[in-house]
Amino acid sequence: MDGQDKLSDHASQDEESYFSDPESHGTFHNPFIESVRPLIELIDSLRLIGIDEDIGLPSIAVVGDQSSGKSSVLEALSGIALPRGSGIVTRCPLELKLRKLKKGRWSGTISYGDHSETFHDPLKVDYLVREAQNKLAGNTVGICNELITLEIFSPEVCDLTLIDLPGITRVPVHGQPADIGEQIKSLILSFISKSATINLVVVPCNIDIATTEALRMAQEVDPEGHRTLAILTKPDLIDRGAETDVLNVVQGKVIPLSKGYIIVRCRGQSDINEKISLDKAMQNEITFFRNHRYFSFLLNEGKASTQCLADKLTKELVDHIKKSLPYLTEQIQTRLLNVQRELKNYEQGPPMEEEMMGPFLSSITMAFCDLVHELSRTGHSKQGNIYASLRPVFMNWDIHLRKTQETFTEKVKEMIEKYNELHRGRELLTFSDFSEYERVVQEHVADLQEPAMGILKEVREIVQNEFKVICDLSFEQYPQLKYIVSNIINDIQSKQETKVEKRIKEFIYMEQLVFTQDKVLQQKLNDSDVPKEVGLDTSDGNLYEYSEDKIFNSKGSALLDARNLTPDKLVLYYTIVYQRLTDYVPMLVTLFMLKAAAKILRHQTMELRIEADVVKLLSEESERGCKRADLKQRLERLMQAQDLISSRL
């Protein structure tokens, strides 16, 4: 026999002796059997950690129409005066925990939200409950779904937990919302529809039970009446001659309920006005039923009086808990496995402990930096290879430069044809001014600056977008961190673009100097047909036109110094310019916009942890992050519940 069975069997034996012999304990103010109390405390502990958000826990929900006598019943059970008045008095669910003390001073604790307050004056209950409702539901007549917990420790109560729900209303009054009735019904249904809840329905004796909205709602969620217990109140207000009708109700002849009916007579407003104590009211109740012509036998059958109600509720709750424990344990284990499995589908989130957040931030920023480094080193990323995206841009630059060779040739030929008319300065006839040829090159090269800047902007867009893709993937669930790193990327790219613009302008300006080493240009001439046009042999065997270092000597150069050869010679020089520009611009842009930018980005990202608000950086607002946080909370609750049940068995 496992611990759970032992606990249940031991509780069963004790409760049998406790509930079968009313004389053994007198009123419910007598000591309660210690072996039963742990069951109730176990459920309260599970509810305290919030496990009822995942699994329905055994509980007793008290429902009734307005002015049905709910407050009077709860007062009689708890020994305290709860808020009373017209209209909606209970505006928030009130969890009433009654804990019997063997000895000691009366005390109470009220808790809601982040607030918890302990007090020792029973007369403060009314004020504190109203204050709690005002804070949660506002100082109006609205309601709120948030739970208020009121725990009472007293030698004069039984061990019991009840949840008091707002009274059902049909017509809004005194500034209530038009849909107040639907709001209240929705709140009540959220409790009584759970299969683990015992529904305690309070119905006045002096109305037609069939018209009671509270009982109708209970029947709706519990058609067989297996978990519904009805309390009939105000028997002293029954019209003469209607006693038989009430007896038929109590005996289940009108609306059968497997848990049955109990009739009680609690303090009315006149009793309160006359300052009749709760103890005196209970004595008057027993006297009322003993002397009642029709209801006296109900007292002997355990179907009348607050004492019988307390015994019945305790027994029903304990039975309900015992029956629910195996299912509850199974459900916790099943939910635990499901949550663990679902949590695996989500990326690792930030740790809950603040002291662990710094190392976690370092780890995810390091992973980001590794991806950025790999991108700059090999070009690889989840989107593909960035060089595959850059190559077409650089190819277009090369194509543009090649096309400009044709326009350059045309410009030079046009200049030669109209040299004397348009370009000849103070030179003598047949002489040419090199500066005029130089100007053609300079103007043409200057026109390349704008397309070079266009290449720069295209590359910036590609690289910046790739960096941001890595940023989005790395910090998807951390919007604050993603925002900061994204701004860093923008800032770095802007600064690097400014540097590259300056370098390109400098290089274009250098190209306007019109310079290359003699050997470089001569190699171009050697590989062309220009020397042959003037009968110059460029083979190694004829050194007549060369100096000792194989460079054209004065005579060789003179043979080539003809105006008609200028277009071909300048075009050959332009191929040198082309070669320098077609490589230099892509290399310059790649170096600054990708390589250097990646290095700066890694450095600045790693510095984020220095004096950073780590908690803020790791705050999650995304749906995925919220879902993971919710799963983690559920996992923690379920594990606590599992440990709690194991420790109590």
Automatic annotation (TrEMBL):
Residue stretches making up the Dynamin-type G domain: 54-326
One Pfam family cited in the UniProt record for this chain: Dynamin_M
Keyword Nucleotide-binding (UniProt): yes
Occurrences of domain GED (ranges): 563-649
UniProt-listed SUPFAM superfamilies: P-loop containing nucleoside triphosphate hydrolases
SMART domains the record matches: DYNc
Matching InterPro entries: Dynamin, Dynamin_GTPase, Dynamin_GTPase_CS, Dynamin_N, Dynamin_stalk, G_DYNAMIN_dom, GED, GED_dom
Gene Ontology terms, MF aspect: GTP binding; GTPase activity; microtubule binding
Domain of life: Eukaryota
Compositional bias (Basic and acidic residues): 1-13
PROSITE patterns: G_DYNAMIN_1 (PS00410), G_DYNAMIN_2 (PS51718), GED (PS51388)
Key word Cytoplasm present: yes
One CC-aspect GO term: cytoplasm
Keywords assigned: Cytoplasm, GTP-binding, Nucleotide-binding
GO biological process, one term: receptor internalization
Alphabetized Gene3D superfamilies for the sequence: Dynamin, middle domain (1.20.120.1240), P-loop containing nucleotide triphosphate hydrolases (3.40.50.300)
UniProt record similarity statement: Belongs to the TRAFAC class dynamin-like GTPase superfamily. Dynamin/Fzo/YdjA family.
Protein's recorded name: Mx Interferon-inducible
Organism, as annotated: Triplophysa tibetana
